[in-house]
Amino acid sequence: MLLTITYEGRGTQDLGYLLHKNPERAQQFELSYGKAYVFYPEVSDERTTAALLLDIDPLDLARGKAGSREGGLFDYVNDRPYASTSFMSTAIARIFGTAMSGRCDKRQELADTPLKLTARLYSLKDNGDRSLAKEMFEPLGYMVETTRTMLDSNFPEWGESPYIDLTISGTVKLSELLNHIYVLIPVFDKQKHYYTSEDEIRKLLEHGEGWLADHPCKEKITRRYFAAKGSYARKTLDILLADENAGDEVPEGEENADAAEEKETRLSLNTQRMEAVKNAVLASGAASVIDLGCGECRLTSLLLNEPQITKVTACDISVSVLEKAAQRLHLDRMQTFRKNKLTLMQASLTYRDKRFEGYGCACVVEVIEHIEPMRIPAFERAVFEFAAPKTVILTTPNREYNANYENLPKNTLRHGDHRFEWTREEFRQWTEHICEKFGYTCEISGIGDVDENLGTPTQMGVFRKNG
Description:
It is a single chain. By secondary structure, the chain is α/β, with parallel strands linked by helices. 33% of the residues lie in helices and 22% in strands. The protein has helices at residues 15-19, 58-63, 86-95, 97-101, 108-111, 132-137, 174-189, 199-207, 218-225, 230-240, 257-284, 298-304, 319-328, 336-339, 376-387, 424-438, and strands spanning 2-8, 27-31, 34-42, 47-56, 115-125, 143-147, 163-172, 288-292, 311-316, 342-346, 361-365, 391-397, 440-447, 458-465. A 7-stranded antiparallel sheet has the order 2-3-4-1-5-7-6. Strand 3 and strand 4 form a beta hairpin. Helix 7 (174-189) packs across helix 9 (218-225) and helix 8 packs across helix 10. The protein is elongated, with a radius of gyration of 25 Å.
């Protein structure tokens, strides 16, 4: 991860005073999951650039630091060590904290002066949202430039990269620039690498003081900053909007009604999905089931209760997810008859694995849309050719139904980690391809509320092996 800040004008070497980092030597800082370096690739009276480079150890991310009792934070295969994420925000706060506060004993008048500054962030993930960078930074007075490349020039069909290199430039105080970047990186990232507590509300308001309340996208910023904590977003917005709504009388409890209704609807859809898959498993007559991409093991937990099922294997690529699943299942105090049925297994769905073989049924619930399109053929062979269970039950979102979600921008996917979402016709064509190539028949059905024109939010295919 790399951030550079360039100061142009006169006496620009004073950037070292403002950042409290000497331009004449490189400095190294120890972080929880790697190291950070501050150095100056160019220094002159007219133009000086400071660079913050993070060297994150991907193995430490996956396994956790040596001597730590806790597991790692992310999967072995992920972008976190290489893209600008919440790690960069944390490093900015730690390494440039004094500069963020606007304090500089030796050059305080300079710290209080707007300067001609340019900042560059490399490999910032926007998932193809071309307007996001401008929505975030242009209202703050910056000129915004982004560059994006193809995923691989040798395979143009893979499309463009979901990452951009971002350049923002303007006449602004250094402290303001650092606080803007600190707050807005998580708006792109949406996945914090640390536990999010209510103290994050204070941090956001502190670093957003003087600009966030007036930003035209303050609601979007706040909700994406707290992507996994809707209640924190609502509390923050209540504070930001307090003056604006001072004369409005809101009945007690009404401010949370929409959020509660949204949560109830979401949980209801998930419950319907799990029940539909469980019922399809039972209808197949299978006694052994493998839950591929099990996540938190919600389906696995349901299947363990069924007398018909004598063996359940929960499989996921992420060791940390499996550890959380074990905690959620209370594996350490699980009843013996349930524990004897259960196996937790780490594996990838895009490689042949003999451990996948021999099951009466395989379930792939809301997983395929997280796989890169170029890896789908490998997934198909691993499941339908090599594992080849008698029944495969697969669910995936129906992209057409997204039009019913008012808060979902047009032509965007339902989740930030989705690589694609199929329409009903695209899903039907894919199931026909599977049936023809691997000798299955498939029955398609919908899960969730039915829209006459757009179908249901979830589509399910039940594949049965011929013969």
